[in-house]
Amino acid sequence: MSPHSLTLVSGFVAVVSVNIVIAFYIFMALKEPVDKHEPDAAFVAQAKDSVKKLTGNKPVDSPESSKKEE
Fold this sequence. Notes:
The chain contains three helices and no strands. The protein is mostly helical and about 70 residues long. InterPro entries: Vma21.
């Protein structure tokens, strides 16, 4: 095979391989049950505390936090 043909074949194989991996991940995500995931209460509480510290102790769902500065 010529170097040009070898490059084309290698590129084609790489593209097909990546598409197979992406299709596999999509298939596995669709196969996963929806009700399986439940948030960890300790993690959620820690995340809310972290957000409160970053926003200056404002409630997470407050309208003030979603306003844009003009």
